[in-house]
Amino acid sequence: MSAGDPATVRNEKPTLFVCHGDDGGPWGHPCKRVQEALRAADIDYAKVIAAHGAPLPFLRKGSRETLREQTGDTKLPALRLADGTVLTHSKAILAWVKRQS
Fold first, then answer.
1. Contacts of 62 (CB under 8 A, 6+ apart)
2. I want to staple 17 with a disulfide (CB 3.0 to 4.6 A). Which of 10, 31, 50, 93 is the partner?
3. Model's pTM, two decimal places?
């Protein structure tokens, strides 16, 4: 099977990019909410802790350029699907999870 084969794409896990707060953030935190939704929907995923979680650029520690290279944006959380599509913002990710049921 080649990398572009539809069967291969279906078998690849999506990759979730989250902030340093990861799954231990406060109730309602976007990175935590999307992980809870993925687990509840029994969707297996790879996870990358991609950056410091401050939403305002001047409060962040470090650059998010690596995140931009991997997802095309600096927003977290982000979900890169097996076909290369990237969803940013928790609402878009949660809507995708809901459509998988």
1. 51, 52
2. 50
3. 0.81
